Amino acid sequence: MALNPLFFRKTIIAATGLFLCIFLIVHLSANCILLLPEDVARGLYNSYSTALRENPLIKIVAYILYISIVLHVVYALLITIRNRKAKPEKYTMNQANENSSWTSQNMGLIGIMILLFIVVHLANFWARIKLGIGEAPGFDADGNVDVYEVTYSLFQNIYYVIFYTVLMIPLGLHLHHGLKSGFKSLGFYHQKGLKTLAKVALIYAAIMAIGFGIIPFIVYFK
Amino acid sequence: MKVTFKIWRQESPDAKGTFRAYQVDDLTEDMSFLEALDHLNELLVLKGEEVIAYEYDCREGICGQCGVFINGRAHGPHNNMTTCQLHMRSFKDGDTIVVEPWRAASFPIIKDLIVDRCAFDRIIEKGAYISAKTGTAPEANAIPIPKSVADAAMDTAACIGCGACVATCKNSSAALFTAAKINHLNKLPQGKAEQHQRVKEMTWQMHEEGFGSCTFTGACEVECPEEISITNIAEMNARFIKSKIFG
Fold it and tell me: A122-152: per-residue pLDDT in tens?
């Protein structure tokens, strides 16, 4: 019997999604360096990012990360196309808000917002630092690429600060539903465990959204 | 009481459907929703118009035939209820009540509010039974089954196949229905012998029928008249993976 797309696609989305959830914890932890006073933060942030770039293990993880994002998006698209086909005619009157959350009904739309964020975010940092597209970043006193300066100068622009902060709202919503749903898609069905998971998902999503959202503001007012 | 029904009328599967409004004046709030529709049909007969086609059987909430979408909710405004258990007191005098058939590609409309739910039957045919010959009814305690397992199996066996889960799901996913049928038998010793084959074949039929993927919105468990928990879908996912490894 061939692969059942109803399960295969969801499994890929859940597995890649959960991997991305772990990645975000590491990402936010590193971003917290930006909250330190500038003289400490610059050296630490730049040496940390150099260590990441040059570590061969991290390079492998980086490729897994790129692949995860692509698979997550592609399979979400495939699932959405299939699901739309399964419900070709919408109800004239539908009170979906009475039986389910807005977030769970609109994960695709929220996902597109996050994808838009990722594209801008990669253009701001990844493209400049790793691909060498656009203005080349400078070096700090220790000879490391001055990623701190790239970040600092970007967040002197209030429009970027607002963009980076506001788009953390859909991120938080997406993570809240995604974390709960992902575990269930992978077959976690322990009743009490799922209740704990719901609480953990809420706390996790709140920490991620507030954490990532507030750092640009703090850097702006530094 | 007086209400206006806005009802989907569709002559045949291929005909183009449309809403038609019917004002009914002499209803009482003690009437069930189906009795109100019966009354409307009597009025249509007296006027020489074609009656509205809708399904029902037991009218006591256990057969699963009376599924329609009422004011934007499967089986009307209450959670976990069939249409036949809905009463006119749930509406206000002067209300407009929008009545639509289940909308899903796998549940094609036959006429007006009646849809074809044979896709469910074809999923059932793929394994919601045991093939072992068990003879006459054995002594009930001959097979030891812990109470917790028997209760959990009964909770899923309660599914009446009304289709509200598919109807309310934005993806028209039949995951709650299929999970209920699979978990019911796979939990019990009689069903264990064919557990992996059952999961694989029933879920494959669910795919073949064109139902969508479950994205855990949770709408199905709110509309299910038998309050079948969405954790059953997670359990089916676990059983699916298990069947791939051990099947």
Answer: 999 999 998 989 888 999 999 999 999 999 9
Of A140, A143, A14, which is closest to residue B234 (Cα–Cα)? A14
Q: What is the CATH number of the domain that holds A117?
A: 1.20.1300.10
pLDDT of amino acid A1:
60
Q: Please determine, for residue A72, whether its predicted confidence score (pLDDT) is greater than 80.
A: yes
Q: Are A86 and B217 inside 8 Å of each other by CB?
A: no
| CATH number of the structural domain spanning residue B206 | 1.10.1060.10
Considering the domain boundaries, does residue B106 fall inside one? no
Question: Across the A/B interface, how many CB contacts are shorter than 8 Å?
Answer: 142
Angle at A9 (CA atoms; ends A170, A92), nearest 5 degrees: 60
Sign of the CA dihedral running A183, A184, A185, A186: positive
Are A4 and B219 in contact (CB < 8 Å)?
Answer: no
- What is the extent of the structural domain holding B183? 118-246
Cα–Cα distance list, A71 to A12, A50, A105, B59, B120 (Å): 7, 28, 21, 48, 32
Q: How far is B177 from chain A (nearest CA, A)?
A: 15
Closest partner CB to B69 (pick from A91, A184, A188): A91
Output b/e per residue, A90-105; b: 16+ Cβ within 10 A.
Answer: ebebbebeebbeebbb
The model carries a pTM of 0.95
The rounded radius of gyration (Å) of the Cα atoms in chain A is 20
**pLDDT tens for each residue of B112-154:** 999 999 999 999 999 999 998 877 887 878 889 999 999 999 9
Closest residue to A90, CB basis, from B98, B103, B171: B103
Min Cα distance A95 → chain B (Å) is 5
Looking at the 3D structure of chain A, how many domains does it have? 1
User: Which residues does residue B114 pair with via DSSP β-bridges, in sequence order?
Assistant: B111
Q: Which of B19, B105, B203 sits opposite A6 (nearest CB)?
A: B203
Residue span of the structural domain in which A178 resides: 5-85+105-220
Whether B204 and A181 lie within 8 Å, measured CB to CB: no
Residues of B in contact with A105 (CB under 8 A): 170, 217
Q: pLDDT value at position B192?
A: 93
CATH code: domain of residue B32: 3.10.20.30
Q: Are B165 and B239 in the same domain? A: yes
Count of structural domains, chain B: 2
The interface predicted TM-score of the complex, written ipTM, equals: 0.94
- The answer to whether residue B223 neighbours chain A at the CB level (below 8 Å) is yes
Residue of A nearest to B229 (CA): A191
What pLDDT does residue B143 have?
Answer: 87
